[in-house]
Amino acid sequence: MINCKDLTENLDLYLNKKPIKGSSRLGIWMHLLVCKNCRVYAEQIKTVSELGPQVHEQEKKEDACSEEFKNDLVKKYKKTNPGL
Ligand SMILES: [Zn+2]
User: Fold this and answer.
1) Helix 4-15 and helix 36-59: axis angle, to 10°?
2) How would residue 20 be classed by pLDDT, with cut points 50, 70 and 90?
3) How far is the centre of ligand 1, averaged over its atoms, from the C-alpha of 43 (Å)?
């Protein structure tokens, strides 16, 4: 069984569906099932990596903080967190 440290080190690879050295994807998946802290952490990483490139795109434009942009972010956030 992998521990929280192993998980945080390999989470990026896991979420990007890349091969993981040393620990198996199944090990990470199982750890996420039993460890609430790492599950919350994984959700945050996932949200950031999904919104990341678009936020970066938007930053190049002048109206980076327009209402439309904020609403769009909120919509996307709700989509990735259906419980909210
Ligand atoms: Zn953990």
Assistant:
1) 40
2) confident
3) 13
| Interval 28-47 mean pLDDT | 93
Q: Where do the structural domains in the chain lie, given as residue ranges?
A: 4-80
Cα 3 to averaged position of ligand 1 atoms, centre (Å):
6
Is the pLDDT higher at 39 or at 46?
39
Q: How far is the CA of 37 from the centre of ligand 1 (A)?
A: 6
The one-letter amino acid at 45? I
3-state secondary structure of 75: helix
